Amino acid sequence: METNQERRFALLLVDDEPMILSTLKRVFRNFPYDLHTAENGRVALQVLKQTPIDAALVDLMMPEMNGMELLAEMRNSYPHVWVVILTGYGGVQEAVSAIQLGAVDFLQKPFEDKGLQARIEQLYRMWLLEQENRQLKEQMQFNFGFDQLIGNSAAILSLKKMIIQVAHSDASILIQGETGTGKELVARAIHHHSPRQAQSFVPVDCAGLNETVMGSELFGHVKGAFTGAHENTLGLIRSADKGTVFLDEVGELSPSMQVKLLRAIQEREVRPVGASRNYPVDVRFLAATNRNLEQEVAEGRFRQDLYYRLNVVVMSVPPLRERLEDVPVLIRHFIAETGTPSGSVRTISKEALACLMTYEWPGNVRELENVIRRAAAIGQNDCIRPSDLPDHFRNLSTCVLGAPGDAVREDSLDAYELAAIRNALAKCVGNRKKAARMLGIGEATLYRKLKRYKLSAQ
Ligand SMILES: Nc1ncnc2c1ncn2[C@@H]1O[C@H](COP(=O)(O)OP(=O)(O)OP(=O)(O)O)[C@@H](O)[C@H]1O
Ligand SMILES: [Mg+2]
Question: Which fold has domain 402-452?
Answer without folding.
Answer: Arc Repressor Mutant, subunit A (1.10.10)
